[in-house]
From TrEMBL, chain A:
It comes from Boseongicola aestuarii. It comes from the Bacteria. It is a multi-pass membrane protein. Keywords: Cell membrane, Membrane, Transmembrane, Transmembrane helix, Transport. This is Lactose transport system permease protein LacG. GO terms for cellular component: plasma membrane. The gene is lacG. The lineage of its organism: Bacteria, Pseudomonadati, Pseudomonadota, Alphaproteobacteria, Rhodobacterales. The keyword RNA-binding does not apply. The chain crosses the membrane at residues 7-30, 65-91, 98-119, 134-155, 176-201, 235-256. It holds the Pfam family BPD_transp_1.
């Protein structure tokens, strides 16, 4: 009896806590669907409207921003998958001097990420004339220390016997990589992809300083440009724009909740 | 034979002349513009640009929406440093010294040097031209200028037994009126403040400039190397802000620019000090009777001016400059300026704009729009010096530290002056 | 594996990918150091060697002193709070109580949002008088608090925003760890008559140590790396009370266009992070030693 009561109490507390936790977000969503005058006066029965979304969509080139973000995350992801695989493979399968030193050097990026060095990285980009381009935004992230770390851990778990067996069959380094290592690391690739997409969709500071034109601006920067105006802020509009820019990730998350969570967990455990 | 030859020569000569003529006057213009208001600004600019392009088919013009003011300046500077500047751009009037120091713009008075042009230049409001000039030359042409005004809730005035057609004119009146307007609930918490003056960030610094002007001083001069931060006027202004909080007319602590209009609309404050650019927003959303007045002043009316001007860049050809000048003339013409002003709430830069039928109708419909115009007579330039961002930060720090109760006005201003002088000493 | 690496393979597999990484991590760090000894160039004069002038300015910079204090408080505040909350959330979600799927959704959702969206949401929430926080306070008869307009609440408000965003992510890591706790260990403890609390404290917590270390490192990196909310919500104000180091670097370099001082601040930041890494390494090694 006591245990039952405990459970109910705990469950209620948990739900209340979760509700409070989600409150800012829920209210923001609610405001996006209602007229501006309700944004500071919550009224349960207020009429719903799509006006804010339409107006926000028309006030700034959000479709362009969407496209830019998609291009950006694709470039980064593809480059990451290829380059990190190569490096991890090299570390796992080959013995060479300075392997330890090189690995430590790479792991520095985990702590000193490209954003920390925005000043110099921006200067580097402007020297090669890649400021205000999408490839410029992607460049510092093409090789990811986190990706190398994850993949190396994963490749280490591949049984040597499989590798040796493939070699006996006459497979060269590339064949072995493609036929033995990559398939076995598949779940990790998936996990890493989710982490990478989520990170780069949401990245703000670096794209902010690299881009100046709407043509290459990703969603996060577009949203901030939209929300900072000299005249007063229209909250329902800003909230609508916020929701629009985050909706794809949110929807994807709700549908693939279980996989998302499982994959983030996997990325963490390893 | 001779006939063919002469025919060919004629054809050749015609072709040469035509192409020659086309290349002499044809120009490709790139025009950067910022948007700083919640308004259909991008479409309006695009429409105006297209209108000019249609009337001038030998040129092409590409209007590039570059974000807010800060981004547009960065973009223009970056492009100029890379050797590919826009030919013309609308940038903050206070960026004048930065642009001059980086050596990317040229004086418009150098291009517009005919008698006609000089007359055209003199047709702008002098208040707007004051911050476009440096060392005797005109570097910029006003386009989207604004000035803050005092918005007040007439219904609230009536409730408090005040005359809704008599907004306060002086600081003392502001406090008196404010006290009557402040409403508290049963718990003793204020549900409506008398007034709301943004004090945080650059918005706060802008309004602060108005306070200083109303005490008979200015924050900076047209030399660009002088910052007058520690003066009796600035001291009096800070003390006024503190008094407003002490007398419970205004909320204590820092007040942001961004949500002030909303607070006014929600009845959280009976009056507010904000840009005339918010007129359209207030008109659309106010559910009460409202009016606009001059900013209440210390010794008399006073206000700062803000907004953006047209600049023409260096690294451009003769034809491009001519075309740019023509474009600017069109954009600041009465008809175009009327469209722009009505769409955004910015103050039109030339007196003759108000003669157009559109503006006359607008003024009739919204007489509040005329207040900013009348206030121009008492307005001064916004804070601008070389190394503007760095120097302004000292002022912002001083204001913020005082209104949040972390420093005394006198010491905060002295510190700000010290910092500013150190930076500007390099330029003297 | 004992295969030897041929030059050709080395170039493809190591040199090309790693040079990209080095170009944007190690090279800029060294460049920053070099640039910190020069002053700014403008179109009228090229930059000149200025020795330790920039570092002198660094020492005399009052704002920087305030900012370093802010950054320290920020890190020391957000890390334990995020860890504590996320462990609690993980325990809640891991228990077989009704409603845990919804709870998990609610806790993890902020992680999916970009920080800039989070900043807008909380800016709206914190707005004095008109935001949701004030509306709620009004219901309870309390005056509205000017969260972002007071120097004593601005930094704490920022910290809470950061924790709100990252606690959900850490919860996931703890969930993974909790689910891999062998049940026989817990059962054995329960057989011995230990209460739920004791089971947790003596059996589960030690097993969570590796996760806690991982989470703490992540939180530390984020505390320095993520300043989007400062840019959007307070711009470091009021009066620099919510400014963080990376935000200051951004403001100095890109708003005030002072690249030389920005490089100097970058050097400071890299040294700080390096120091933290060494301290962390030393602490972890010592702890491992005593295991």
């Amino acid at each position: 009896m006591n245990r039952g009561l405990n459970r109910i109490l705990l469950s209620t507390m948990g739900v209340v806590f979760a509700a409070l936790w989600a409150l800012p977000f829920i209210y923001s969503v609610w405001t996006a669907f209602h007229d501006e005058k309700y944004s500071a006066n919550f009224q349960l029965g207020a009429p719903w409207t799509f006006e804010n979304f339409i107006e926000a969509w028309q006030s700034a080139p959000f479709s362009l921003y969407f496209a830019n973000t998609m291009i950006l995350i694709t470039i980064v992801l593809v480059a990451n998958l290829i380059l990190c695989t190569l490096v991890a493979y090299a570390f796992v399968r080959y013995k060479f001097r300075w392997a330890g030193f090189l690995f430590a050097l790479i792991m520095v990026q985990l702590l000193i990420s490209p954003e920390i060095l925005i000043v110099e990285n921006y200067l580097t980009l402007s020297r090669v004339g890649l400021t205000d381009t999408i490839i410029g935004i992607a460049l510092p992230y093409l090789t990811s220390a986190f990706g190398i770390f994850l993949l190396r851990q994963t490749f280490l778990t591949v049984p040597k016997s499989l590798d040796e067996a493939a070699q006996i069959e006459g497979a060269g380094a590339w064949r072995v990589l493609w036929n033995v290592y990559v398939p076995l690391a598949w779940p990790v690739y998936l996990a890493y992809s989710l982490v990478s997409i989520s990170f780069h969709w949401n990245n703000f500071l670096w794209p902010l300083i690299v881009t100046n034109s709407p043509e290459v601006r990703p969603l996060t920067v577009g949203l901030s440009v939209f929300a900072t105006v000299d005249s007063g802020v229209e909250w329902s509009l800003v909230n609508a724009a916020t929701l629009m820019t985050t909706a794809p990730l949110i929807i994807a998350f709700i549908i693939f909740q279980r996989q998302f969570v499982a994959n983030f967990m996997r990325a963490g455990i390893k | 034979m001779t006939k063919l030859k002469s025919y060919a020569t004629l054809l050749g000569a015609t072709a040469l002349t035509l192409t020659g003529a086309a290349s002499v006057s044809a120009a490709d213009l790139e025009f950067y513009f910022p948007v700083g208001v919640n308004a259909p600004a991008v479409e309006t600019i695009q429409a105006l640009t297209d209108e000019w392009a249609a009337a001038n088919p030998q040129h092409t013009v590409k209007a590039v929406y570059a974000g807010n003011y800060e981004e547009t300046t960065t973009k223009a500077l970056t492009a100029a440093n890379a050797g590919q500047p826009p030919q013309v751009a609308v940038l903050l009037s206070i960026d004048l010294f930065t642009l001059i120091e980086e050596d990317v713009i040229l004086p418009i008075s150098d291009i517009a040097n005919s008698e006609e042009d000089k007359e055209w230049i003199s047709g702008f409001y002098p208040a707007f031209m004051s911050d476009a000039q440096f060392e005797g030359k005109t570097y910029a042409i006003p386009f989207q200028r604004s000035t803050p005004v005092y918005y007040y809730n007439k219904d609230a005035f009536r409730e408090a037994g005040l005359d809704p057609e008599a907004p306060p004119k002086t600081w003392d009146e502001m406090i008196e009126v404010g006290k009557a307007l402040t409403v508290k609930d049963d718990n003793g918490n204020v549900t409506r403040w008398g007034t709301r003056i943004p004090t945080l960030g650059l918005g706060g610094a802008w309004l602060f400039g108005g306070l200083v002007v109303s005490k008979g001083d200015v924050l900076t001069t047209e030399t660009g190397i002088e910052a007058r931060m520690d003066t009796p006027a600035t001291l009096a202004s800070l003390e006024f802000l503190l008094r407003l909080a002490e007398e419970e007319v205004m909320a204590p602590g820092g007040i942001t620019w961004g949500d002030t209009p909303k607070a006014f609309l929600e009845g959280q404050t009976a009056s507010m000090w904000t840009s005339t650019g918010n007129l359209a927003f207030i008109e659309e959303n106010a559910e009460f009777d409202w009016g606009v007045g001059f900013l209440p002043g210390g010794d008399g009316p006073g206000a700062p001016i803000g907004g953006g001007n047209f600049y023409v860049f260096q690294d451009t050809t003769e034809e491009e400059r001519e075309a740019a000048l023509d474009f600017i003339k069109f954009m600041t013409s009465p008809e175009s300026a009327a469209k722009w002003s009505i769409a955004t709430g910015y103050v039109a830069p030339r007196p003759d704009t108000w003669e157009t039928p559109e503006m006359k109708a607008y003024a009739e419909r919204l007489p509040q729009a005329l207040v900013a115009l009348d206030q121009l007579a008492y307005a001064e330039r916004e804070f601008a010096t070389f190394q503007r961002a760095k120097v302004t930060q000292y002022l912002v720090d001083a204001i913020e530290s005082v209104v949040t109760g972390n420093a005394e006005p006198a010491e905060a201003l002295a510190k700000a002056q010290e910092g500013a002088d150190k930076i500007l000493s390099e330029y003297k | 594996m004992n295969n030897r690496l041929s030059i050709r393979l080395a170039v493809i597999m190591l040199v090309i990918p790693c040079s990209l990484l080095v170009a944007f991590t190690h090279y800029p760090a060294i460049q920053a150091l070099i640039n910190s000894f020069w002053n700014n160039s403008s179109s009228r004069r090229p930059s000149r060697f200025s020795g330790i002038e920039n570092y002198q300015a660094l020492m005399e910079d009052d704002r920087l002193a305030q900012i370093l204090i802010n950054s320290t408080i920020y890190a020391l505040g957000t890390i334990p709070l995020a860890i504590g909350l996320s462990i609690g959330m993980a325990l809640l979600v891991n228990s077989r109580l009704p409603g845990t799927t919804l709870m998990r959704l609610s806790f993890f959702m902020p992680t999916m949002l970009p920080m800039i969206a989070v900043a807008n949401i909380w800016l709206f929430f914190y707005a004095p008088g008109i935001g949701l926080a004030s509306q709620i306070l009004e219901v309870f008869g309390m005056p509205s608090i000017n969260f972002l307009g007071r120097t004593d609440t601005a930094l704490a408000s920022m910290m809470f925003v950061a924790v709100w965003k990252e606690a959900g992510l850490f919860m996931i890591f703890y969930l993974a760890a909790l689910q891999s706790v062998p049940t026989n260990l817990k059962d054995a403890a329960k057989l011995e008559g230990a209460s739920a609390l004791r089971v947790f404290w003596d059996v589960v917590m030690p097993l969570l140590r590796p996760t806690t270390i991982f989470v703490a490192v992540n939180a530390l990196i984020n505390a320095f790396r993520l300043v989007d909310h400062v840019i959007v919500m307070t711009e470091g104000g009021p009066n620099n009370s919510s400014a963080l180091l990376l935000y200051y670097i951004y403001e100095v370099t890109f708003r005030q266009r002072d690249f030389a001082y920005g490089a100097t601040l970058t050097v400071l930041m890299v040294c700080l992070l390096g120091l933290l890494a060494i301290v962390q390494y030393w602490v972890l090694n010592r702890k491992a030693h005593y295991q």
